[in-house]
Records
---
Amino acid sequence: MTEKVSALLNDQVNKEFYSAYLYLDFANYFTEKGLTGFANWYNVQAQEERDHAVLFMQYLQNNGEKVTLEGIAKPATESSDSMAVLKQALQHEKYVTGLINNIYHAASEDRDYRTLQFLDWFVKEQGEEEKNANDLIQKMDIFGSDPKGLYLLDQELAARVYAAPSLTL
Ligand code: FEO
């Protein structure tokens, strides 16, 4: 593995932990608003992000690379209203997709096929992450302005349960 790819993968560990931290902040925002289903949704999301960070660490270690944990930035939540939070989640996932694509590009230039195979799971995962974030914005747009609709949407989100990632190393 080249130093460049190793450094990008190591940086992604931090980015995934930041995602977990951001989504925990979202969960706190919704908890404080009494929307415990939305809070559950983002708590589960935070757990998934932590899993992503660990997968990047394990992949580096399986390849004999050193992992350096850096400081995690304070989450910058757009908390003007619930919709702003949901839209920030979509923007954040698009940003993460860009990061994954950037590592993919570097690994491709290096003909690092093992890293490309590892990253394939994340390329697909980002497609799902963006779709989930977009679906939530659409549902909020349709149902969120009506108290009964918002209540039902909150109940739907309360049903999300954590599942370990399908990728194992
Ligand atoms: Fe680690 Fe939300 O992607």
---
Amino acid sequence: MTKLGIIGAMEQEVETLLEALREQTSWQKAGSTFYEGILEELPVAIVQCGVGKVNAAVCAQILCDHCHVTHLVNTGIAGSLCAELDIGDLVVSRDAMYHDFDCMKFGYPFGKVPGMDTVAFPADQSLMEAAYAAAEQVNPGHARIGRVASGDQFVASKAVKEQIIARTQGICTEMEGAAIAQTAYRNRLPFVILRAISDKADDSAQMDYPTFERIAAHRCAQVTRSLARQLKAAGQK
Ligand code: ADE
């Protein structure tokens, strides 16, 4: 039976989802609160992981070990890395990689974690399709599929943005997705990342982020609920 693990980085987004969560129970682990219940008729576990790669990976592993989730989705906001993605638009991951992982001195390609057999962790095809359908439902004509570039850095300068694009070919940047992707990959769990654009990851990012964070967080929650409905419907076929 499908049980969806939902990892959000932001309070507003998780709060919106919790308002819709039925038969709610909660418990604490490693400083985070894990909520379990039924969202859109689908069993889910929800956690607000906090910011950055380590927080994200810790929570993803707990969802695997203690909640026995079968699928993982990471939702939240992101900075745009391409001209076609404007504030409020939606991104669904094709794959995810780090923009701040560099063992090139030892002959590894940029972004490659030694011991992993891939630079970019691929999202699950059918989750990706379901997430894209959900995104199109919420914001028609404004959803794109592509690479998510993650790192422990709020990107707010044109120069850094250009470097990340050149190194990763990502279409958006955020601070958790690839860590969740790597955790899912190691546990052989299907995952997808779903992000709403809150800023352009350039010199205007610091200004735009607080203005658009709320709207983007709300949009993510809507798409996540739609994704839960799609997964429920797919499970019934
Ligand atoms: N999340 C939202 N905007 C971001 C940015 N510009 N850099 C990193 N993470 C983000």
---
Amino acid sequence: MTKKGQQAGSLSRRSLLGGAAAIGTTAALKSAGALEANPANLPPNVSEWTPYLGAGVDANPYGVPSEFESHVVRRSVEWLTASTESSVNFTPLQDLEGFVTPNGLCFERHHGGVPEVNPVDYRLMINGLVDRELIFTLDDLKRFPQTNRFHFLECAANGGMEWRGAQLNGCQYTFGMVHNVQYTGVKLSDICREVGIKPEASWVMAEGGDSAGMNRSIPIEKILDDCMIAYAMNGEALRPEQGYPARLVVPGWEGNMWVKWIRRLEFGDMPYMAREETSKYTDLMEDGKARMFTWVMDAKSVVTSPCPEKALMSKGTQLLRGLAWSGRGKIDRVDVSLDGGKNWQTAELHGPVMDKCLTRFTLPFEWNGEELLVQSRAMDETGYVQPTIGELQKVRGLNSIYHNNAIATWQVHADGSVDNVRLG
Ligand code: MTE
Ligand code: CO
């Protein structure tokens, strides 16, 4: 077993977590005062906030979280990104409950920054092998029949830093390139009916309106199956970071294909071999050849508490929390091990358990200060079982970056602090 950071040479825990380094250790939480209650506020006293009128209704025209939740933010890793415009940040999974990601906490991945798209000037153009080449306004899109679906979006690079060993000491950094919201929009099959697809059309090139002009090829079967153009997330307009005013939704498939600020769909009869599917988002194998078009995100899970940011604060009964998802369908079962994979217990799944959607699981356990090696293993409705990193590397070798869905291990120490470690 190697500890985090050992294979990463100069990477120290401090430099990786920056200001957030304190979060996650018992001692740090105590020194930050997070655990020190003011006796004057506790029963049977009247708390200091009770005798006075509170803030009025207009204090926050657009509501914001309590100031005591200010540590719950997206975070980025300096050395992972060349510039903030071609960058990524991470969802704070360890601080979330349920299965919905709040809009302001959805991780962001941009290749050319966030464009400021005026919805009045927004257009979606459809061209190529169709009967009628059409250009839709946002209002046109909103006049189509509506569909509402919860889906996870996971970047293919999620966990990509962990292929060769435990590197980033945090749930947020190792698993946080995933979010899960309810999308409202139009099924692409409805748009296809409107434009009329020629029989020889077999691929669609989706193109973004950002400065990266990011584009991807998608087979027509997937487009007609469950893809949609979304204009809302969690009940409100898409956030600019997530592609305002419209993005492509490609359920269960790698996040890169979910083209944001979508401006064009071209129907063709072969893949377009875009940069993002040839140079990037391919899996380099041991023999030097690269796998292409590895679109589906296989079943995966993570324990969100305890984890490096969520130390165990007391002995006795604990509630382990986690999230599981599969790009092939519904989560069927999640097992949890506290001893590095020797013994497994089945966790409780909290419904609704939906297709290609994050599923919350919990498991109560007793802790008396012993060391734990916490793991979770997801199974989906197709029978697929989340692999160990050893099993994955046997097939994929050591050159991969993308599509790491291996079981992770959190080591809980006697003082309750937690580290990301590699078993095997
Ligand atoms: N679409 C455009 N137009 N430009 C981009 O840079 N990034 C892609 C995809 N769609 C990107 C894009 C990548 S790599 C991912 S993982 C997802 O958007 C991230 O979506 P999010 O920012 O909503 O998390
Ligand atoms: Co991505």
